[in-house]
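Example for reference:
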Amino acid sequence: MKRKEKYSYEEFLEVCRKMRFKSVKDYHERRKVDERLPYHPRLYYPEFKFSHITGRVVGKYYSYIEFLSLCSIIKFKSKKDYSKRYKAWKGMPSRPEKIYEGFKYSYITGNKYNHKS
């Protein structure tokens, strides 16, 4: 069976607006109903940010994807380490769990047991 081409960026945004995605997780769970919606939208649309389709404007903070990317570079060791060092980067929230829906410190530390440290 032939794979369908992905949408143009404008078409993609329109489809996403109609589907009313509420979060990144919601997008990844429900995008499967339309095979033209890519798993990694940034690979197809360089200008893409999830706030474009969720309507959630993060404001003074990095978008969730940008935040996770930066954290992967910084390599925080624990929640305590994050709390000590996050201020060095403008746009990093003091309490990411309050800004990014579904966030867990294990996402940025790689250690699922350090959520209290």
Notes: The chain has a mean pLDDT of 82. The CA atoms of residues 38 and 90 lie 31 Å apart.
